[in-house]
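Quick one, C-alpha cells below. Sequence please?
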C-alpha cells in the first residue's frame, strides 16, 4: 500500500507560498517559514509578495480530512512529512559569488527530520551539481542516513515570474528530476498532479539544475546585447527603440528591450553558472561580459541625466531628482537585487538630493535593506525625473506638468509618452 503523501515546504516566499497552496488542494501540506511575522501575516490572509490568491489561501487553510495547508514557524511541525520541498532564496554575496547559506541551513533542518524513504526536492536556483555535491552531504551528515538508500532527492527548478498573473505556477511547464529512475518518476508524478501545463522529466538532477541556470543566463545575455546597442546608439544620437522597432519587422528578430537587469533570477543566476564553470577551469566569456554590460546600466543612466542637466544649465550639487520605481520589475513589490539602487547611488555621489517613489515597494524593507526611505507622494519641483520601473500607476502621472516646469525627464523603459521625455534607453 502506497504511503500517503505529506508535503513539507520550507520557505513561504514568492516560490514556496503558491506551491504550498496548489499542493494543499490535493495533499496535506505544512508550510514552514523561519520568520514568525511572515507566518502570522499569512494566517491572517495578508501576503506582502502579492503572489498568492488570497481566496485560495483561505480555502486551503480551512481544508481537513487529509488535505489542506498548515502554516508554521515551528520546525517540528514538519516532522510528520515524508516529502520535503526546499524553496529558499539563493542570492550572491558582495563579491558576486553564490551564497548557499540559506540553502544549506534548510538542508540541515530537513536532515534533522529525515526518515526512511523520505524524498527531499530542491526548487532553489543553483549551479549544476549543487544538490548532490553540496546539499546531499549535509543531509547525510545531519540525518546519519545514506543517500539513495535511506532517503532520496529530486530537483525541480522554480519558474515563478513575480507580478505575472497570467503565467502562474500551474500554467508554466515544470522541469522535474530525481536521484534514481524510480524517484524521478515519483517526483514527476507529484508535480504532474498540480501542473496543468505539464512536466518535462529531465534525465538527471544535474541536467535539471543546468536548465534553470541557462534559462536566465540566455535572457541576461540577450538583454546585455540590446543594452550595449543602447550605449552605442546613444553616441550616434539615434533612438534605440526606433532601431528595434525597425529590426523587429523581420520575422526571426528577437525583440529584447534595453533596461536595468536585477531581481533574484536574471541578475543572479548567471553568476552561479559562471562560478561552477570557473571551478572546472573554464572562464565563460560571453556570460560574464553580458553581466558586466548589464551591471553598468544604472551608472550610465545617472551620468546621462547629469549631462542633460548640465546642458540645460542646471546646477548639480544639491539639485533634486525624482526616481520613479525601486522594485526590480514592474507591478511587483520585490526589491531583491534591484538595480534602481545603482542610479540612486551614482546620483548621490554627485551631491544630488534624490526622492524615490514606488507604490509597490515596502518602505520599511527599503530602509532596512538600502538605508533610505521612499517618499509617500510626489511633488513637481524637481530638476530631473528618471523613470526606472514601469509600474502601471506611473501612466497616470502628469508628465506635462514636469515638462512645463523645465524638469529633465529620462525614461529607462520607453514607457512614458515620447513627447514628454528628453531621453530614453
Amino acid at each position: 500500500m502506497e504511503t500517503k503523501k505529506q508535503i513539507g515546504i520550507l520557505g513561504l516566499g514568492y516560490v514556496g507560498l503558491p506551491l504550498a497552496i496548489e499542493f494543499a488542494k490535493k495533499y496535506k501540506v505544512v508550510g514552514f517559514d523561519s520568520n514568525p511575522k511572515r507566518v502570522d501575516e499569512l494566517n491572517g490572509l495578508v501576503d506582502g509578495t502579492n503572489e498568492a490568491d488570497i481566496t485560495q489561501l483561505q480555502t486551503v487553510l480551512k481544508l481537513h480530512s487529509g488535505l489542506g495547508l498548515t502554516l508554521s514557524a515551528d520546525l517540528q511541525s514538519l516532522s510528520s512529512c515524508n516529502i520535503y520541498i526546499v524553496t529558499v532564496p539563493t542570492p550572491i554575496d558582495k563579491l558576486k559569488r553564490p551564497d548557499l547559506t540559506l540553502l544549506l541551513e534548510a538542508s540541515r533542518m530537513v536532515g534533522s527530520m529525515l526518515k526512511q524513504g523520505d524524498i527531499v526536492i530542491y526548487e532553489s536556483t543553483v549551479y549544476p551539481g549543487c544538490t548532490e555535491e553540496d546539499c546531499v552531504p549535509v543531509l547525510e551528515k545531519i540525518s546519519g542516513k545514506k543517500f539513495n538508500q535511506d532517503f532520496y532527492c529530486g530537483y525541480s527548478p522554480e519558474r515563478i515570474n513575480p507580478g505575472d498573473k497570467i503565467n502562474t505556477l500551474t500554467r508554466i511547464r515544470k522541469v522535474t528530476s530525481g536521484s534514481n529512475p524510480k524517484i524521478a518518476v515519483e517526483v514527476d508524478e507529484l508535480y504532474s498532479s498540480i501542473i496543468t501545463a505539464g512536466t518535462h522529466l529531465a534525465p538527471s538532477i544535474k541536467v535539471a539544475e543546468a536548465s534553470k541556470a541557462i534559462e536566465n543566463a540566455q535572457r541576461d545575455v540577450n538583454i546585455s546585447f540590446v543594452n550595449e546597442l543602447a550605449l552605442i546608439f546613444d553616441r550616434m544620437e539615434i533612438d534605440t527603440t526606433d532601431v528595434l522597432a525597425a529590426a523587429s519587422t523581420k520575422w526571426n528578430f528577437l525583440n529584447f528591450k534595453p533596461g536595468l537587469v536585477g531581481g533574484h533570477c536574471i541578475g543572479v543566476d548567471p553568476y552561479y553558472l559562471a562560478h561552477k564553470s570557473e571551478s572546472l577551469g573554464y572562464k565563460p566569456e560571453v556570460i560574464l561580459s553580458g553581466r558586466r554590460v548589464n551591471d553598468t546600466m544604472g551608472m550610465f543612466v545617472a551620468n546621462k541625466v547629469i549631462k542633460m542637466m548640465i546642458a540645460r544649465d542646471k546646477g548639480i550639487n544639491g539639485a533634486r531628482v525624482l526616481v520613479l520605481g525601486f522594485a526590480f520589475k514592474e507591478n511587483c513589490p520585490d526589491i531583491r537585487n534591484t538595480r534602481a539602487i545603482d542610479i540612486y547611488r551614482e546620483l548621490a555621489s554627485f551631491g544630488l538630493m534624490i526622492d524615490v517613489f514606488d507604490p509597490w515597494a515596502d518602505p520599511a524593507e527599503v530602509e532596512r535593506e538600502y538605508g533610505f526611505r521612499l517618499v509617500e507622494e510626489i511633488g513637481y519641483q524637481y530638476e530631473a525625473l528618471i523613470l526606472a520601473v514601469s509600474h502601471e500607476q506611473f501612466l497616470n502621472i502628469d508628465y506635462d506638468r514636469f515638462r512645463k516646469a523645465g524638469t529633465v525627464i529620462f525614461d529607462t523603459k520607453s514607457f512614458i509618452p515620447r513627447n514628454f521625455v528628453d531621453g530614453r534607453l
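DSSP finds 14 helices and 13 strands in the chain. The longest helix spans residues 205-236.
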